[in-house]
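INTERNAL TRANSFER SHEET
From: sequence group
To: structure group
Subject: Vomeronasal type-1 receptor

Please process the attached sequence and return the structure record in the designated field. Keep the field labels unchanged so the import script can parse them.
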Amino acid sequence: MKWSNIIQTIIFLCLIGPGSVGNILMFVRQVYTSALGTEKKPVDLILIHLAFSNMIIICTTGIRDIATVFYFRNFLGDIGCKAVVYLARTARGLSICTTCLLSVVQALTISPRTTIWRKLKPQTSWQILTYVLLFWIFNALTSSNLLYYMTAGGSLNRSGVAGYIGYCYMLPSRDTVKWLFLSLMAVRDLIFQSLMGWSSGHISFYLYKHHKQVLYLHSCRPVNSFSPEIKAAQSILILMACFLVFYWADFIFSFYTGYMVTHDSIILNIKTCLVLGYAVLSPFVLMSRAVPVAKAL
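Return from structure group:
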């Protein structure tokens, strides 16, 4: 094995290992809290689903990278390529939708009880489960073209492929099909990122306003700068910042690799790290600041 492949393997293991452990811990922790809690909180189900989506991303990306780094050309095959890439794309969409739902629910939670926004907050886990089911249906359909156009590249003429993902290749498709699915993904990302932006601004505004009120009421004595509401604000805003950084960096690299139809290993490795980045970091951001907004205010 080449030294470059050894270094690449170490980097991937350093991402996949901690990422898997972090998401499993968050998944088990939230299931345990939800199972033993007297009141089933909607936010618990959201965090469980986010951890589950992240684990799918990490596992599918890890399997694909093992096949690529160790030159296991027949490791996946056509069915394996279709399944791995399809699940990875679907899970990525689920991560976007679930992160947005978490941000919106937290924003509705801290809204004053008298506002109309507070009335939109999901009251039960069953309502969250409905959203999750819709997310699965929508993202499964949005990624369904991969089940037909994705194939293994063992005996494929690489000059005619439209995309390259490890040893899996995407066959050229008709312009109508290509733009239909690209439009669906673009509309999804635009809607959910707009909601993320609104909810993040909403959280920042109300928590800042709340903190100023606390400073005014307790101006005669020192106030702890790491109060629960500040930790809650930082947790959500850091999570949103991480998501946006990794999303847009991945978007730029995806656009470049798609436009140039490049098989450059360095570019593809950087893109893989960006895909894994949010899935690896998000559980540690949430667990290190274990103060949900719903409990902080």
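Handover comment: The chain is about 75% helix and 5% strand. Residues 291-297 have pLDDT under 50 and may be disordered.
Transfer complete.
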